[in-house]
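R.M. (postdoc): so does anyone remember the format we settled on? I'll just put the structure tokens first.
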């Protein structure tokens, strides 16, 4: 009886199945498939593969950028306003960070951007939500003004908001904040800081405090610290602030840097074990 060699045939079939599965996965687009129970991710810089996959979905006719932006576009598919924000300065865009996770539904990506078409009120940028499916990544929604650069995912699985620092500067006043943010623009503030030393009245911070209060000038960054978080800030201790305010030279006051612990209980975040009595921010 003639022997049939099944071994090589089975190996070839397995190889075909593996290659086919790999081809199907590549068609889905970059990044892991994130579903309920899978890990949510912190915002980070995009890879070149991710730039190539997501940019064409939101930047029509993309070309090399200029004026400080990575790319120029001829259109912005799906943008919620016909005048692209009304800035009137072209359609330059830079995709600055990406996070994968469950933000409004499983298997999504949120890409933050800076754009020449965004006005100052939007901090010259925003975010874009993408949804993954069997046919690949698709644009879900633009969120002008809601950039989540540097933000950290709070829930390890299931739907998650972010722990973020942010701020803006205008007429010499620099305002910063720490808060819990969602991709649809909701923000629950935890800490706020106002630095008024570069305004027309360098002693303006004195009017916002009472004797014995520290002055929180800057909320700089937030990072993971084991199962909790740590926020880096700059402030003026009460005794130093008292003396500077009495001498009316707060503009030249010495600043102290420190890190404050932040805890997340699954529904709210708060600064814990802080010895500071900060004056109101903004």
């Amino acid at each position: 009886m003639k022997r049939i060699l099944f071994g090589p045939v089975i190996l070839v079939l397995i190889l075909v199945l593996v290659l086919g599965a790999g081809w199907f996965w590549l068609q889905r687009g970059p990044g892991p498939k994130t579903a309920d129970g899978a890990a949510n991710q912190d915002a980070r810089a995009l890879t070149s593969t991710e730039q190539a996959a997501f940019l064409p979905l939101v930047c029509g006719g993309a070309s090399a950028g200029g004026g400080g932006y990575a790319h120029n576009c001829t259109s912005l598919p799906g943008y919620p306003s016909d005048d692209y924000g009304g800035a009137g300065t072209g359609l330059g865009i830079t995709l600055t960070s990406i996070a994968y996770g469950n933000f409004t539904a499983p298997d999504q990506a949120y890409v933050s951007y800076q754009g020449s078409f965004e006005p100052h009120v939007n901090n010259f940028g925003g975010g874009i939500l993408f949804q993954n499916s069997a046919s690949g990544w698709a644009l879900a929604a633009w969120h002008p003004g809601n950039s989540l650069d540097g933000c950290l995912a709070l829930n390890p699985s299931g739907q998650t908001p972010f722990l973020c620092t942010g701020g803006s500067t205008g007429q010499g006043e620099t305002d910063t904040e720490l808060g819990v943010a969602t991709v649809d623009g909701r923000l629950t503030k935890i800490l706020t800081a106002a630095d008024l030393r570069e305004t027309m009245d360098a002693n303006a911070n004195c009017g916002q405090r009472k004797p014995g209060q520290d002055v929180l000038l800057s909320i700089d960054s937030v990072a993971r610290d084991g199962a909790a978080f740590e926020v880096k800030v700059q402030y003026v201790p009460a005794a130093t602030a008292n003396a500077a305010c009495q001498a009316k030279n707060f503009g030249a006051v010495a600043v102290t840097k420190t890190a404050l612990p932040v805890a997340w209980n699954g529904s709210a975040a708060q600064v814990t074990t802080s010895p500071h009595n900060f004056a109101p921010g903004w």
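R.M.: ...and that's the designed sequence above, right after the tokens. Also worth knowing: Residues 161-282 form one domain. The chain has two domains: 33-154, 161-282.
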